[in-house]
Design a protein that fits this description.
binds adenosine-5'-diphosphate; eight-stranded mixed β-sheet; binds iron/sulfur cluster; binds magnesium ion; 31% helix; alpha/beta
Length: 345
């Protein structure tokens, strides 16, 4: 299904913080994404980068003691402050659904599968006499035999079945946007592939937009229209997947890509060195500075702005420094040659 370019879900200037010793502790800073109808956006980065909290804040579902200090969320034609979680949740309604790592945790342990789906359809206003056939169709769409699975409790399901039932429950709400937070982490490799393929094909069939949080860069390369790379609470690069994978502009993106094997073009793998600074130790400048081979004094003075470099946004001083937007150390044929522009995110 073609992607309609108009954004339907936009997160702008989102900052998320915790309280530590009575003081605010920044966890996510200046997070911006937009999503068009039918678009698949991959959100990647190391553990602790802020992927889950950014998306949870975007739908008003943060854990206790964590809050959105600023930011606005646009959905359904109007914006809502990210800090007003109750108003935000009611504004988003069932238009946006969150699918978590462990499907079983989203299920009510005391209700059989049929009853759980029935409850959602009832909220959605489906007439009682139509609901059973709708449940059968939904379970069938995720490849589960309704007759057999419907009478089970969550603890009687395998990990893959529980994730499929969680998907069914998300789909029963008929959301326009689905946020899937590492939906297959708890599953074995074969089930993971099946569940992801199913998720993507359901999104395509329903023209649903998807934010896919994952560690699997191969999955992103093959299935996401755009990708956002996060490091230490910042989006450091966001744009079309194909061009970012071909010519990354942020040194962190380059390091991530150099650390994974390429089956088409076998090459030496370069492991990612160092670790991300922890919240509270981000410092004043670029949060990648302690790991970056190209760091200089500019980088430490202040957090680099997100600037437009060709078809994407990059949070790094290199494009401005070099004027041609290239990352030193990349193969010449992989370097993008776009002039850097000063930009608004
Ligand atoms: N409930 C919490 N209380 C305090 N800090 C948290 C909490 N949840 C996450 N964090 C911290 O916020 C940062 C971002 O976490 P998270 O969004 O879960 O990362 P990711 O999903 O990218 O692995 C991490 O440093 C993590 O330790
Ligand atoms: S701003 Fe400086 S330290 Fe940060 S990624 Fe770019 S070159 Fe490296
Ligand atoms: Mg996470």
């Amino acid at each position: 299904m073609a992607v309609d370019d108009r954004p339907i879900f936009v997160v702008k200037g989102l900052c998320v913080e915790a309280r530590s010793d009575g003081r605010p502790l920044n966890l996510v800073d200046d997070f911006n994404i937009s999503l068009s109808k039918g678009e698949v956006l991959g959100l990647v980065g190391e553990t602790g980068a802020g992927k889950s909290l950014s998306m949870r804040a975007s739908v008003g579902l943060l854990p206790p003691a964590i809050r959105a200090a600023s930011g606005s969320i646009y959905f359904g034609g109007r914006s809502c402050s990210a800090g007003e979680t109750r108003a935000l949740r009611s504004h988003l309604g069932r238009g946006i659904c969150l699918l978590l790592q462990n499907g079983r945790s989203a299920l009510n342990p005391f209700m059989r599968v049929h009853a759980q789906i029935d409850r959602i359809l009832s909220y959605r206003g489906h007439a009682r006499q139509d609901r059973r056939s709708a449940i059968d169709a939904l379970l069938e769409s995720v490849g589960l035999p309704s007759q057999e699975i419907g009478t089970r409790y969550p603890h009687e399901l395998s990990g893959g079945q529980a994730q499929r039932v969680a998907m069914t429950i998300a789909l029963a709400s008929e959301p326009l946007v689905l946020i899937a937070d590492e939906p297959t982490t708890a599953l074995d490799v074969t089930t993971e592939r099946d569940v992801i393929q199913l998720l993507l094909s359901l999104c395509r069939q329903r023209d649903m937009s998807l934010v896919l949080i994952t560690h699997n860069l191969g999955l992103v390369a093959n299935n996401c229209d755009r990708v956002a790379i996060m490091h230490a609470g910042h989006v450091v690069e966001i744009g079309p997947t194909a061009s970012i994978f071909k010519a990354p502009q942020h040194p962190y993106t380059l390091s991530l890509l150099q650390a994974i094997p390429d089956v088409d073009e076998p090459r030496e793998l370069i492991p990612l060195t160092g670790s991300s600074p922890r919240p509270g130790a981000f410092g004043d400048g670029c949060r990648f500075a302690t790991r970056c081979p190209h760091v200089d004094t500019d980088c430490k003075a202040r957090v680099p702005d997100l600037i437009a470099v060709g078809d994407r946004l990059v949070r790094c001083v290199i494009p401005k420094r070099s004027k041609v937007g290239t990352v030193p150390g990349m193969k010449r044929e992989h370097q993008a040659k776009w002039p850097a522009q000063s930009a608004t995110p």
